């Protein structure tokens, strides 16, 4: 029988943190899952670390890209191999609380009209130290109201019905970064989405982490907002205001922006 949940990861030169990420998956209280990992042409020791875990747990499935093709295409490749009713995302440098899958699965099973759920998160530094927290709105109306201002979900906390992805499409490959934001805007325009208030993931925010390594992340987030108001029927004036605001934010130095997340 197919697993209830497919945990989807993509890894590129992630040897520093991927063991922690995989271990947090294997330590889940909910056991009926598979873990699909796309090794996106890594040139460090990422493949050896993944292989060690794969040999010890048959729930881990690995796809090896001969060369690096980027996160968005790798995630879509992984999605095409996922067999679960739900997709749980996790970046290779983040970690899950051990009850993450259990809590999200129970919510989605008990509330059938929710298409996607996420959670609040801890901010982690490169030494796994908690340096802050990201608390997010839980109610759909509140989330949708704030969604053009900023992404109201942590990518590594996303838990999505696979049949919704099959119907609405996977990640949009024109987005090299902020692909999660575009997907969330697309799904939230048609379906109910929610967050769980509990901190179910640890989100890495050191300067070289996936979410902080380039300006592309922020430019594509602006692009996603534009699509929100031109394709997905979000309010245009509000969207244009936030696009202008984010262009100003883009000009700030990275270290200054990161101070916002540590307290």
State the main characteristics:
38% helix; 263 residues; Spore Coat Polysaccharide Biosynthesis Protein SpsA, Chain A; alpha/beta
Total separate domains: 1
Percent strand equals 15-25%
- CATH class category label: Alpha Beta
Fourth-level CATH superfamily: Spore Coat Polysaccharide Biosynthesis Protein SpsA, Chain A
Compute the gyration radius: what is it?
17 Å
Secondary-structure arrangement, i.e. CATH architecture: Alpha-Beta Complex
Which ranges are low-confidence, i.e. pLDDT below 50, for 5 or more consecutive residues?
A: 209-213
Mean pLDDT figure: 93
Please trace the helix and strand order, writing H or E for each element.
Answer: EHEHEHEEHEEHEHHEHHH
Distance between the termini: 46 Å
Q: Tally the helices.
A: 10
Judged by helices, strands and strand pairing, the structural class is alpha/beta
At the third CATH level, what is the topology name? Spore Coat Polysaccharide Biosynthesis Protein SpsA, Chain A
Number of strands: 9
Write the layout of secondary structure elements.
Layout: E1 5-11, H1 18-26, E2 33-40, H2 46-56, E3 60-65, H3 71-79, E4 86-89, E5 95-96, H4 100-110, E6 114-124, E7 130-134, H5 140-146, E8 159-161, H6 162-168, H7 179-188, E9 192-204, H8 216-230, H9 236-250, H10 254-258
Parallel strand pairs: 1-2, 1-4, 2-3, 6-9
Antiparallel strand pairs: 4-8, 5-9, 6-7, 6-8
Helix pairs in contact: 7-8, 8-9
């Amino acid at each position: 029988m197919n697993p209830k949940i497919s945990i989807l990861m993509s890894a590129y030169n992630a040897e520093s943190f991927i063991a922690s990420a995989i271990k947090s998956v294997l330590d889940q209280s909910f056991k009926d899952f598979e873990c699909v990992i796309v090794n996106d042409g890594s040139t460090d020791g990422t493949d050896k670390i993944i292989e060690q875990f794969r040999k010890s747990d048959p729930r881990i499935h690995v796809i090896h890209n001969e060369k690096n093709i980027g996160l968005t295409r790798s995630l879509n490749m992984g999605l095409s191999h996922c067999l679960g009713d739900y997709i749980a995302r996790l970046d290779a440098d983040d970690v899950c609380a051990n009850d993450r899958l259990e809590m999200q699965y129970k919510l989605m099973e008990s509330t059938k009209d929710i298409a996607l759920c996420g959670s609040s998160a801890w901010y982690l530094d490169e030494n796994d130290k908690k340096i802050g927290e990201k608390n997010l709105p839980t109610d759909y109306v509140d989330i949708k109201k704030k969604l053009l201002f900023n992404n109201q979900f942590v990518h590594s906390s996303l838990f999505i019905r696979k049949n919704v992805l099959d119907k609405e499409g996977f990640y949009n490959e024109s987005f090299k970064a902020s692909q999660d934001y575009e997907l969330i805007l697309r799904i939230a325009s048609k379906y109910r989405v929610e967050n769980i208030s509990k901190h179910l993931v640890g989100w890495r925010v050191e300067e070289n982490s996936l979410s902080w390594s380039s300006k592309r992340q922020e430019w594509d987030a602006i692009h996603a907002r534009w699509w929100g108001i031109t394709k997905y029927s979000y309010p245009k004036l509000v969207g244009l205001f936030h696009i202008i605001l984010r262009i100003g934010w883009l000009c700030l130095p990275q270290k200054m922006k990161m101070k916002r997340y540590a307290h």
